[in-house]
Amino acid sequence: MSNNKPTFVLVHGAWHQPAHWGPLIASLNAYGYKTVAPALPSVTNAPTAPCEDINHDTDTIRECILAELDREGGANVVVVPHSYGGIPTTSALRGLDTLSRTALGHQTSVIAIAALTSYILPEGMNMAEAEQKPVPKGLLRAMDHPPPQLFYNDLSEEERMKWAALLRPMSSGALIGRSTFSAHEVIPVHYLMADEDKAITLATQERIVNTLKAEAVEGRSVFESGGGDDRVS
């Protein structure tokens, strides 16, 4: 593959796995793009050792991105977070923007965040606050996934069950994690909004995008696309 093309790093949401990205990976590969989809510890570790916080996910994503940026013949990266995945993703991007990387003599950087109905939040905010809900409290545990209709409401029953079979428990501690970096201030954000998303309502998506716009700084842009449905998890 040509190094002129960026690598796409796809970050799944809560209860999901890299396998849920299968159709998108196949499509991007068909167009000659390399794709990488890390497995988040908040899901993989949940059944036996639930993560206490969001940090393991953040570290995993950062290591994955740096492996692509710094490998021999490395390429720029476009990171694609979905849903919960936006919080550890943006937290992982400190110092990986083009200006910061160039200042250190690197030729590759994270050139864009392509968010799919995702929590792209300012530093210090968590998911509950973005939804204007109380921050949940409780014991650290592995949480079973919600009803499949919440994620796949627009799919046939057969397709819904196919993707639901891949869902796994989620570490409760990660779900209350706060963003630790306002990545949208230094990396362009492209935000795909989904009108019929049941997991992140359109009202929440609009609040997120409006917050990004309100914090706009020179050299950072937000692109909003309304409509469509959310079939990738």
Describe this structure in a few short sentences.
This protein is of the alpha/beta class. It is built from nine helices and eight strands.
Polypeptide structure, described:
It is a single chain. The protein has a single domain, classed as Rossmann fold. 30% of the residues lie in helices and 15% in strands. The chain is built from nine helices and eight strands. Strands 2-1-3-4-7-8 form a six-stranded parallel β-sheet. It has a two-stranded antiparallel sheet with strand order 5-6. α1 (22-30) links the parallel β1 and β2 (35-36). The radius of gyration is 17 Å and the shape is globular. 42% of the residues are buried. Pfam families: Abhydrolase_6. This is AB hydrolase-1 domain-containing protein.
